[in-house]
Hints:
eight-stranded antiparallel β-sheet; six-stranded antiparallel β-sheet; 7 helices; globular
Amino acid sequence: MKKTKQTPKRSKRKPALPCPKESGWLEWFGWTDRGRVRINNEDAFLGLCFDANDVHHLGREGDTKSRNMDFVFAVSDGMGGAKAGEYASKIAVEKITRLLPRSFKQSATGMNAGFADVLTELFGQINRALTYLGLSYEECHGMATTLSLCWFTPQWMYFGHVGDSRIYYLPAKGEQVKQLSQDDTHVGWLYRTGKINEREARTHPRRNVLQKALGGGNQFVDPQVGAVGYEPGDIFLICSDGVVDGLYDHHIVDVLRAHDFDKSDKNPAHQLVREALEKGSRDNITALVVRVL
């Protein structure tokens, strides 16, 4: 893994937070749409920054020059009867505001837990909360959600994942996009092991059948966790499966590479959502784009 080189470029966007102005670090863009088929939107996304004392919810787009805080971005895709899926995804992203700031504070006082332990505990807490609600209230029966999360520190991006939402990494150097997360489906396994290609995976009748999710009666959960060192110009995309339902990986790369982050006022996450809609996506669609400055 590569570590970050401290050669940031100046951001042309106004800082989203009243933090001390240092070198540029991150800019982010989010967008969600219920799509053309579903009645309600069971997707949710979150932007959050925090230190040992404060937690701030971020807007749909913005940037920051402060390296005194950690940043978290997450996408959650809920499922369940009635509005249970919508509740499940919102519960998942809101639970993040409790544990991660607490881990920052513990680290500042010398109680430094590993990122894998912190993320595993976070996913476990969300799973237990959703399972409890599903067992306690009839209207919440079967509620479950995916969760894909990126946690940015000044040195590394740590990620955690359960389900079939996705985390993509597009390095500034090179045209290839890498899917960091693994789809928790049998079809995803078939694709990863080379038994089917991307087109076959996208059209497989069981592509949306999850083997793992948060809630849904699952007693235990084992999230995928990992870390990536980043450089200026690197782009990360967190998205629900609604984006993938409409766009192949090379389409995602085309949209992100064609976007002029330094000059355009357009939101690249909105562009991805719109493209997915135009390509026939039938699900809720959510995209979060994070670029290292």
